[in-house]
Description:
2 copies of one chain form a homodimer. By secondary structure, the first copy, chain A, is mainly α. Helices cover about 70% and strands about 10% of the residues of chain A. Chain A has helices at about 5-10, 15-25, 30-40, 45-55, 75-110, and strands at about 30, 60-65, 70-75. A 3-stranded antiparallel beta sheet of chain A has the order 1-3-2. In chain A, strand 2 (about 60-65) and strand 3 (about 70-75) form a beta hairpin. In chain A, helix 1 packs across helix 5. At the A-B interface, helix 1, helix 2 and helix 5 of A face helix 1, helix 2 and helix 5 of B. Chain A binds a DNA duplex through helix 3 and helix 4.
Amino acid sequence: MVEDQVDRFFEVLADPTRRQVVRLLGEGPQRAGQLAAATGSSSPAMSRHLRILLSAGLVADERGSDDARVRIFRLNPEPVVAVQAWLDQVQAHWRDQLGSFKRHVEQKESS
Amino acid sequence: MVEDQVDRFFEVLADPTRRQVVRLLGEGPQRAGQLAAATGSSSPAMSRHLRILLSAGLVADERGSDDARVRIFRLNPEPVVAVQAWLDQVQAHWRDQLGSFKRHVEQKESS
DNA sequence: ACAATAGTTAACCAGAAGTAGAACTATTGC
DNA sequence: GCAATAGTTCTACTTCTGGTTAACTATTGT
């Protein structure tokens, strides 16, 4: 099921710091230390968040080409696409409802 | 900030049962009892989930017109639209990255 | 008035999740 | 080799969250 990926996505993005990381990585690949500093997290905390983001396939990592100590993270497209599809699906049913619901409300308010 | 709404959205949809409720309500308005039965939750548990969904503005409620005991819930469009916008924004930055990243990878692989 | 139904609220419990601090690994540079 | 840096892992500790049970409110129907 693709639903698993959606489930994992929401589970992972439940944490505000991880959402912030995703937002930051949206602007470009960054090092772990930079992310920790930007979010005001400690190194261990950020390390954990990144491991979780990795396990969910939301980000990918790469060793620094010049300095092998640094780890550079970047976003992974697939999961976001899956969630967008999920939201679109929920909304699709909705739009169908909206017509009848609108009529329902108008009918109610005109009484 | 609109970001607050997005934060709230993820916070609320972190729970699988609440995601299921949203999915169910996507197919049409339903009573609290029906949602409890469909998700295999107890009444108190569902009541809590619905209160949370309400407070986040994700759903709206209505009393049954024939039976005032029942409470009918339906989805609210605005929050989902906000989150879709958020995801679109993240993805937009991305697409810009993809070009340069692709070139970066190709350059690396050709060595 | 009384029993049954729909749902909410409150108190308590158990498990999960995030955090901080200390120790550890690997790499760089002098 | 040694100090410094980048990051990870481990071990508590704390907080948050969701579930259950029991009691309660409101409404319906007889």
